[in-house]
Amino acid sequence: MTENLQLSIGENILGVKERIARAKEKSPHGNEVTLIAVSKTHPAEAIRAAYEAGLRHFGENRVQEWESKREALQDLGGATWHLIGHLQSNKSTRAAKFFHAIDSVDDFALAQRLDNAHEEFAPRKLRVLIEVHIAGEASKSGAPVDSLPELLRKSSGLSHLEIAGLMCIPPFLEEAAEVRPYFRKLRELRTELSDLLKMELPVLSMGMSHDFEVAIEEGATEVRVGTAIFGTRDVK
Ligand SMILES: *Cc1c(COP(=O)(O)O)cnc(C)c1O
């Protein structure tokens, strides 16, 4: 690992942690916030640098990309690997095997496939978040809001999954504060659904590099941060 990479990633992480701490002070919700380092397009050695700097949660958005890196990182104990991108059902078996958490489940057929695939790892459950289509037509992925009660109720009956909460990707808006209504809506949905279904949904995964402070002010328990930790991504 080059020393420069270690240094710059370490500094970036310190900066992000400070921003998280300040946002927590402003937040009326008072919850803990887990920082998930989103390492897509970045090499295994960048992930290792973030691990050395103390991070333990990592997010990748493609199964295949993670399969190509994980060999080189087998020795990193105690890390949690999240799949945060859209999952095609034909990759669900590999996803259940190579990730600890699938943060982007958006329909019941996919939940069922993950449940089946994860059976061999019982009694350890696969942590799942339901990705919510929060912004109407402006975004592509996620379960429609009106499908959520049914989807959550049915998925919570799957014995190898732990349905931990909700995730969203709001539209990208230059002005981070304009994203606030979407974060607020996800929080309110969480309250409504957990009351309705008598289900604890402790996790709200929302907020990325340019808007995670706003998300924390609205109650995010997990933020997914790529660029602010690893630098800009090369667009292929
Ligand atoms: C890439 C990605 C992120 C991180 O985005 P940054 O703007 O680089 O922080 C977060 N969540 C999801 C689902 C992503 O695909």
Notable traits:
236 residues; eight-stranded parallel beta sheet; 8 strands; 17% strand; globular; binds pyridoxal-5'-phosphate
Percentage of helical residues? 40-55%
- Biggest sheet, spatial arrangement of strands: 7-6-5-4-3-2-1-8
Mean pLDDT score, rounded?
95
Summarize the main sheet: 8 strands, parallel
Strand content: 15-25%
Which value, in Å, is the CA radius of gyration?
Answer: 17 Å
Give the CA-CA distance, first to last residue: 24 Å
Number of strands: 8
Low-confidence stretches: none
Detailed description of the structure:
- The protein is α/β, with parallel strands linked by helices and 236 residues long.
- The protein has nine helices and eight strands.
- The protein has helices at 3-26, 44-52, 63-70, 92-98, 108-118, 148-155, 180-197, 212-217, 227-230; strands spanning 34-38, 57-60, 80-83, 101-105, 126-132, 161-168, 203-205, 222-225.
- The chain has an eight-stranded parallel β-sheet with strand order 7-6-5-4-3-2-1-8.
- Helix 3 (63-70) links the parallel strand 2 (57-60) and strand 3.
- The longest helix has 24 residues, at 3-26.
- The radius of gyration is 17 Å and the shape is globular.
- The two termini are 24 Å apart.
- The mean pLDDT is 95.
- The structure holds pyridoxal-5'-phosphate.
- Pyridoxal-5'-phosphate (PLP) binds at residues 38, 40, 61, 84-85, 169, 208-209, 224-228.
List the helices and strands and how they pair.
Blueprint: H1 3-26, E1 34-38, H2 44-52, E2 57-60, H3 63-70, E3 80-83, H4 92-98, E4 101-105, H5 108-118, E5 126-132, H6 148-155, E6 161-168, H7 180-197, E7 203-205, H8 212-217, E8 222-225, H9 227-230
Parallel strand pairs: 1-2, 1-8, 2-3, 3-4, 4-5, 5-6, 6-7
Bound molecules: pyridoxal-5'-phosphate.
